[in-house]
Design goal:
Helix content: 25-40%
CATH class of one domain: Alpha Beta
Number of helices: 5
Radius of gyration: 14 Å
Distance between the termini: 26 Å
Shape: globular
Order of helices and strands: HHEHEHEEHE
CATH topology of one domain: Rossmann fold
CATH architecture of one domain: 3-Layer(aba) Sandwich
CATH superfamily of one domain: Vaccinia Virus protein VP39
Strand content: 15-25%
Number of strands: 5
Largest sheet: 5 strands, parallel
Strand order of the largest sheet: 3-2-1-4-5
Structural class: alpha/beta
Protein backbone atom coordinates (compact mmCIF):
# COMPACT_ATOMS: atom_id res chain seq x y z
CA UNK A 1 0.00 0.00 0.00
CA UNK A 2 1.42 3.43 -0.89
CA UNK A 3 1.98 5.91 1.86
CA UNK A 4 2.61 9.62 2.06
CA UNK A 5 6.40 9.11 2.05
CA UNK A 6 6.30 7.04 -1.15
CA UNK A 7 4.56 9.85 -3.04
CA UNK A 8 7.40 12.34 -3.09
CA UNK A 9 7.23 14.13 -6.42
CA UNK A 10 4.13 16.32 -5.94
CA UNK A 11 4.82 17.23 -2.31
CA UNK A 12 5.82 20.74 -1.33
CA UNK A 13 8.91 21.21 0.75
CA UNK A 14 8.17 21.72 4.46
CA UNK A 15 9.97 25.07 4.22
CA UNK A 16 7.28 26.45 1.90
CA UNK A 17 6.62 30.15 2.49
CA UNK A 18 2.84 29.62 2.61
CA UNK A 19 1.23 30.41 5.94
CA UNK A 20 -1.45 27.99 7.16
CA UNK A 21 -4.94 29.40 7.56
CA UNK A 22 -7.08 28.76 10.64
CA UNK A 23 -8.38 25.21 10.91
CA UNK A 24 -11.73 24.71 9.13
CA UNK A 25 -12.98 22.25 11.75
CA UNK A 26 -13.28 22.82 15.49
CA UNK A 27 -11.57 20.62 18.05
CA UNK A 28 -14.95 19.31 19.19
CA UNK A 29 -15.86 18.31 15.65
CA UNK A 30 -12.53 16.55 15.14
CA UNK A 31 -13.00 14.65 18.40
CA UNK A 32 -16.48 13.60 17.25
CA UNK A 33 -15.10 12.27 13.95
CA UNK A 34 -12.33 10.44 15.81
CA UNK A 35 -15.01 8.71 17.91
CA UNK A 36 -17.19 7.94 14.87
CA UNK A 37 -14.31 6.42 12.91
CA UNK A 38 -14.90 2.87 14.14
CA UNK A 39 -18.51 2.79 12.85
CA UNK A 40 -18.33 5.39 10.06
CA UNK A 41 -18.28 2.88 7.20
CA UNK A 42 -21.53 1.36 8.49
CA UNK A 43 -23.45 4.66 8.23
CA UNK A 44 -25.68 5.19 5.19
CA UNK A 45 -24.20 7.96 3.03
CA UNK A 46 -26.04 9.06 -0.13
CA UNK A 47 -22.96 9.20 -2.36
CA UNK A 48 -22.99 7.92 -5.92
CA UNK A 49 -19.37 6.93 -6.62
CA UNK A 50 -20.19 5.56 -10.09
CA UNK A 51 -21.52 8.95 -11.24
CA UNK A 52 -18.51 10.80 -9.83
CA UNK A 53 -16.06 8.28 -11.28
CA UNK A 54 -17.65 8.60 -14.75
CA UNK A 55 -17.48 12.39 -14.51
CA UNK A 56 -13.75 12.28 -13.76
CA UNK A 57 -12.92 9.28 -15.98
CA UNK A 58 -11.01 11.11 -18.72
CA UNK A 59 -8.69 12.98 -16.38
CA UNK A 60 -5.08 11.93 -15.89
CA UNK A 61 -2.86 12.19 -12.86
CA UNK A 62 -3.01 11.50 -9.14
CA UNK A 63 -6.33 11.56 -7.30
CA UNK A 64 -7.02 13.42 -4.06
CA UNK A 65 -10.02 12.67 -1.86
CA UNK A 66 -10.19 15.69 0.45
CA UNK A 67 -12.03 15.09 3.70
CA UNK A 68 -12.16 11.42 2.70
CA UNK A 69 -12.41 10.10 6.26
CA UNK A 70 -11.90 6.34 6.39
CA UNK A 71 -11.33 6.10 2.64
CA UNK A 72 -14.69 4.46 2.16
CA UNK A 73 -15.07 5.96 -1.33
CA UNK A 74 -11.49 6.97 -2.19
CA UNK A 75 -10.56 3.76 -3.99
CA UNK A 76 -13.72 3.61 -6.09
CA UNK A 77 -13.77 7.33 -6.91
CA UNK A 78 -10.18 7.30 -8.10
CA UNK A 79 -9.98 3.71 -9.39
CA UNK A 80 -8.01 4.63 -12.53
CA UNK A 81 -5.63 7.02 -10.78
CA UNK A 82 -2.28 6.44 -9.17
CA UNK A 83 -1.37 7.41 -6.64
CA UNK A 84 -4.59 7.91 -4.71
CA UNK A 85 -4.31 10.20 -1.72
CA UNK A 86 -6.83 10.63 1.06
CA UNK A 87 -6.44 13.86 3.07
CA UNK A 88 -8.32 14.34 6.32
CA UNK A 89 -7.89 16.15 9.65
CA UNK A 90 -9.25 13.32 11.81
CA UNK A 91 -6.54 11.03 13.13
CA UNK A 92 -9.19 8.42 13.98
CA UNK A 93 -10.55 8.35 10.44
CA UNK A 94 -7.05 8.13 8.98
CA UNK A 95 -6.16 5.28 11.33
CA UNK A 96 -9.13 3.33 9.93
CA UNK A 97 -8.06 4.18 6.38
CA UNK A 98 -4.53 2.91 7.07
CA UNK A 99 -5.88 -0.43 8.37
CA UNK A 100 -8.19 -0.93 5.39
CA UNK A 101 -7.21 -2.99 2.37
CA UNK A 102 -7.19 -0.05 0.00
CA UNK A 103 -4.41 1.18 -2.25
CA UNK A 104 -4.69 4.69 -0.84
CA UNK A 105 -2.10 6.94 0.82
CA UNK A 106 -3.80 8.59 3.82
CA UNK A 107 -2.30 11.89 4.98
CA UNK A 108 -3.13 14.16 7.91
CA UNK A 109 -3.77 17.48 6.20
CA UNK A 110 -5.82 20.61 6.45
CA UNK A 111 -7.74 21.58 3.31
CA UNK A 112 -6.56 25.18 3.52
CA UNK A 113 -2.87 24.18 3.41
CA UNK A 114 -2.40 20.91 1.54
CA UNK A 115 1.15 19.50 1.54
CA UNK A 116 1.05 19.07 -2.25
CA UNK A 117 2.88 20.86 -5.04
CA UNK A 118 1.12 23.30 -7.34
CA UNK A 119 -0.69 21.64 -10.27
CA UNK A 120 0.18 18.12 -9.03
CA UNK A 121 -3.27 16.49 -8.87
CA UNK A 122 -5.44 15.33 -11.78
CA UNK A 123 -8.75 15.03 -9.91
CA UNK A 124 -10.06 16.13 -6.52
CA UNK A 125 -13.17 14.78 -4.83
CA UNK A 126 -14.92 15.98 -1.70
CA UNK A 127 -17.50 13.39 -0.68
CA UNK A 128 -20.10 14.39 1.91
CA UNK A 129 -17.60 16.71 3.60
CA UNK A 130 -17.77 20.17 2.02
CA UNK A 131 -20.33 21.43 4.54
CA UNK A 132 -17.84 20.62 7.32
CA UNK A 133 -15.33 23.02 5.77
CA UNK A 134 -17.29 26.16 6.76
CA UNK A 135 -16.30 28.91 7.33
CA UNK A 136 -13.19 28.27 5.20
CA UNK A 137 -14.85 26.90 2.07
CA UNK A 138 -13.56 29.72 -0.12
CA UNK A 139 -9.98 29.22 1.09
CA UNK A 140 -10.27 25.47 0.55
CA UNK A 141 -11.55 25.91 -3.01
CA UNK A 142 -8.58 28.22 -3.67
CA UNK A 143 -6.23 25.56 -2.28
CA UNK A 144 -7.86 22.90 -4.47
CA UNK A 145 -7.36 25.17 -7.48
CA UNK A 146 -3.68 25.54 -6.53
CA UNK A 147 -2.98 21.78 -6.40
CA UNK A 148 -5.20 20.87 -9.36
CA UNK A 149 -3.65 20.57 -12.80
CA UNK A 150 -5.01 23.04 -15.39
CA UNK A 151 -6.84 20.20 -17.17
CA UNK A 152 -7.91 18.59 -13.88
CA UNK A 153 -11.36 18.15 -12.39
CA UNK A 154 -13.06 18.78 -9.06
CA UNK A 155 -16.22 16.98 -7.93
CA UNK A 156 -18.21 17.73 -4.77
Amino acid sequence: MPNAKSWRTPWRAPSSPRTPSPAPTSGEALARFDRLARIYDLLPIPTQPDTVRQTLANLDGPGLDLGGGTGRFTGSLHAERSPRVLADRSRGMLARARRAERSVAPILADGVDLPLADASVGAVTVTEAFHHFAPDQEAIVAEIARVLRPEGGFAV
